[in-house]
Every structure is written in structure tokens, then in C-alpha cells.
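To: structure subgroup
Subject: Chain for Friday's discussion

All,

I'm putting the inputs and outputs inline so they're searchable in the archive.
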Amino acid sequence: MPEGRPADVIPTLPGLLLFFALLLASLVSGLLSGAPALAQSGEMRIGRLVDWTTLDPHRARSSAETEILRLIGETPLTLAADGRTLRPGFAESWTVSPDRKTYTLTLQEGLAFCSGKKATAEDVVRSVKRWLDPKIKGAATHLAGPLATVTAEDDRTVRYRLTAPYSEMLHALTDTAHTLIDVDQAETAGEAFGTEAVDGTGPYCLTGRREDGTTVLTRKGDWARKGPGPALLGPYTVPPARIAFVSYGEERDLLDALMEGRIDRTREAPFWALGYLREDPRFAVTPAPGRAWSWHLGLVSGRLLLSDRRVRQAIGSAIDLGPILAEEFAGEVLPAGHIVDPAVLDALPESDPGPFSLDPDRADALLVEAGWRRGPDGNRLKDGEVLDLVAYVPARGPAKRMMTAIAGQLATLGISVTVREFEGADYWRALGTGSYDLYVMGLPYRTAGEVMRLGFASSAVGATNRVGWRDAERTDLLLRQALLAASDAARRDAHHEVQRVLENEFLWVPIAHERNFWVDLVR
């Protein structure tokens, strides 16, 4: 289940009635008295459902954490809203050697931590080494690539040397794991670093938490050099002096706060409410740029009943995504024709015809061809065995609801699905056993290469490769060719080819590419 996302998004009748009651009450209140303008308080209040656990960039991965990290810290490079174009971060410029094994970054002038301490190239080196130190147990260390050394050539020049080309190195440098920190502070603070103390070079400083749990950031004096763009400011033209992140836990409480003007913005409004909010002139609903987030049905090829590609293709041809997307996402997502979001770097374009399409007759023919015929009760039988698949799902949330709907649709094809639910961390432990045939999952990623390496590389079997796919001669070879590519075009072509290979194996059935939206209270 994705981190930092609401557990339930389907409105109940009482929920809808409450929403309309709040809508009416807030409209009347706004007409009578109005709400204080952001400029008067100087504070922007951002509502969210899930609070952060750590702001140590070497350990943080949830969206609740990275959203704050991008304000109090900086990465070497950043990505534009299109998710592809590279822009300066704490590095004002960069060069890449012809062999793509040496990356040289020039730091911004006047780079300093919130404490006022000057930030130099040596701080960058120490930040990277801390992240990769096994004692830290840093997250996403694969984003360092085949790094051999990182050195400070002078106060403003950092050089990364790799043992082999890593064609996605520049995009990896935009991840929050590469955030510049004051390692002296981290070593002094110990376990408190990331919870009580974080000194970054970003446009805001962590002030702390109020008694109600609200996290407060304060704008730095040098904001003009590194001011956040429209993604932070929304409809506001004046950068807020303070930003307060308020966690509510429940959608009902979050919507209540939004409608009553107690928060200024959120990007966690439930999908079903977005249509109503767009019709209210007091709110602006705009796309929220960020990492791609895609949902898929995973088919474990290493399991006996799914080892035949024809069975996997039949399942992919039998699922009608229309009702699922309407019920779960209120139509606020991009229906998936490919396993990778077409918007990200090196993904197959949306215009490229993928192999996924609803065709129940084709699904039936494929099962018959594979030897699975309907028995007297309508279930598929082969050599006396029933086509009964096991699906693992978290006990709550969208993955469970989508799997339940998919199981119902497969039943009409004569495929039985036994859905087993797991609470909390038990779900992830259960996935580690590999004793299942199907699962539904949403994954965040930055590039096509990143998500395909995580999902399908043979080296990731038993970890992030949950479908048990081992294919050294095609998948692994193409993924390696992409990483070692001598040009952007060669990297793209290799990624396109491996994506076609994977899609034609029907290992993931794409469900939806999720879209996030900011909802702003327009003062």
C-alpha cells in the first residue's frame, strides 16, 4: 500500500451528506464574515492525512516526509513540473565527461545552512558518505549508482566518479536521498537527527512542532535566491513567512478544515470530492507535479498456475477497468494502457499501442488453448486441478477494493480467486513469502528505467521484483544496456524495448496512473 496516502476514498451516503452540509455552512460563513487573508497571518497552513516520521533525508521515503524535505533542504539538481527537464538545485551548473563516468557539480554561491554555517563541497561529500554508510541503513542507496568516489575539488566543486556509466545519474541527483545536510549536526544529534534537529540549505527552516502536532517552517532570509515555485505558492503571490503542516488522520476532518477555512491548501482531498470543489468558486484545483504513481495487478510468473503466458494474457484481457476507475478514483486518474506512465522519462508514449485491451472472447480462447476448460460448476479445470488463484491484499484501502472487484470479474471467466487480507506490517511480511499468485500495488517512481529495474530485474527477485521474473537474456540485458548507454537516445531505445518485452509477458496488468491535485482556498 502506498505510503502517506488515505486509506479510504469512497464516499458513503453519510459522508456525502456531511460534505454538502459543510459546503453550505462554509459558503454562508464566507458570505457573512469572510476569512482572514494569508498576507495578514503570514502563515500558509497545509492539510494532510498522514504525519511524518523522520526528516532525516537518508532514511525518509514517504511523501509526507519528502514534501517537507524539499522545503528545508536542497538536492544537487531538481526536476521541472514536466518530470523530465533538469534544473539547478544547490548546484548552479554541472558537466558530464564523455565516458559518462565523471560528474562535476559547481555549487551555488552563498550556500548556507539554516544555522548560518556556510555549506561547502566538503559538506556534500560528507552527506553522501553518511547516506552510504552501512551503519546508517540509508534508503534508496541504489540511486548513488556505481559510485566509486565523491571528492571536493575546492569549496564549490564536487566530483562524482563512477566505476561504470549510469545513464540516469543526473535524474537520481534530484532525489531527496541526495539532500545536503550538516553532518556535524547529525553526528551530534544522534537519534534525534531528523526528529528534533534538521539543518538544511532550503528556502525554509524547521522551527519545530506545536503542542497540537503541527509542523512549522520559517522562511529564510535568502529566500530570493532559492524561492520555491508555483508548486508551493499556489494562488498566492507573496511567499509565506511560515508554512504549517497540519495532520488530521481522517478525510472527514481534513475536508471539514478545508471548508471552514482552517487550512489554505491540501493535496490529499479525496478523489470523489474534487468535482464538488471545482464547482465552488472559493477553491482552485490544480495538478500537483511530483513523482509518477502507478497502480498495477501483479501476476506472479513463478507460481505454477501462472507460469503459462497464455493464462496471464487471459487475465489481462478479462478485466474491465472502467467500473474500477470510476468507483475508486472518480475518474480523476489516467487509465493505464502501459505499465509505465507515458509522462515519465523513457516511457513508451501513450500513442504507442500496448497489448492490453478488454476482450472476454479472446480471454476464453486463450484459457482453452492452454488446456483450462470449464467444469460443470463453471470453474476452469485442467488435469483435475481447479484454476484457483491466491491474492494477498492489505486489510484496508484501495488495493483491497480493487482486488475484490477484479476477483469478481475473473469469476465470470471461471477463474476463482481467494483473497487473503493482512493487517499493517503483516502484509509486507506476507509478500516476502512469495506464497501468492496475485496482488494489487501502487508504486512511486521517477523514470521508466527506475520502475522496471525495481519491478523486473532478476537481482530484485525476493525484494521489489514481486512477480518472480527472471530473464537474463532479454530483460536484464536490456536494462543493463540502458544504464550503460552512451547517449540519451540509446538509453531511451533500450528502455522502450524492455518495456515492450515486459508488457508482452503480461506480468503486470496496468490499472491507472494516478494524478495528484492541489486544492487551494482562494482568499
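Points worth raising on Friday:
The longest strand covers residues 147-154.
Residues 307 and 510 are 19 Å apart (CA to CA).

D.
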